[in-house]
Specification:
The protein contains 9 helices and 2 strands; from the N terminus they run αααααββαααα. By secondary structure, it is mainly alpha-helical. A hairpin with a 2-residue loop joins strand 1 and strand 2 (110-111).
């Protein structure tokens, strides 16, 4: 049984490492990788889904990024939001992929910026559609360009709430440093 207490981070790291090994051994489909009910239950208790963890595993194995440490940091922020802001209840909504800003949309002169803000908000709320990933290759390229890591950006979006100007200021100040 997967530990759902304060030791969740250690349990998560073990699970992530098991899935990395499975992926490297040819199990490269989310349903096959997460076939055990106790794994799904554990993920659900921390506000995660098999699809999002599969996407992190796939990118780590194929691209070497995001690192397992970064995945844990992102998951920690989502878990805290899920437990404290959402009181452990999943959103009843999944956002429509077509309603996210297009990749080429700009904000403060930065292409991709409106898209990643909306993806971060959806990640926090657990409303990302299964065909979108927070911290995908495009997100990572944008964040590298502005000198912000994915977990840090997610936390800034969380703290900003609806104050997009706060996010813009943080990112533009950081990108100038």
């Amino acid at each position: 049984m997967y530990d759902q207490s304060e030791n969740w981070a250690e349990t998560f790291q073990i699970l992530f490492n098991e899935k990395v090994a499975a992926y490297k051994n040819g199990i490269q489909h989310v349903a096959a990788m997460f076939s055990k009910e106790e794994e799904k239950v554990f993920l659900r208790t921390i506000g995660a889904t098999p699809q999002e963890i599969f996407d992190f595993v796939e990118d780590w194995c194929d691209d070497g990024d995001p690192t397992p440490e970064m995945v844990l940091a992102i998951t920690r922020i989502r878990r805290d939001f899920f437990l404290n802001e959402q009181q452990g209840h999943y959103s009843k909504f999944v956002r429509n992929t077509d309603l996210f800003p297009p990749r080429e949309a700009s904000l403060a002169g930065l292409e991709w910026f409106p898209r990643i803000i909306e993806k971060a908000k959806a990640k926090l709320l657990g409303e990302l559609p299964s065909d979108l990933m927070y911290s995908c290759g495009g997100d990572r390229r944008f964040l590298k360009k502005v000198r912000v890591n994915p977990a840090e950006f997610l936390q800034v979006v969380r703290e900003a709430g609806d104050d997009v100007d706060h996010i813009i200021k943080f990112v533009t100040d950081r990108s100038k440093s």
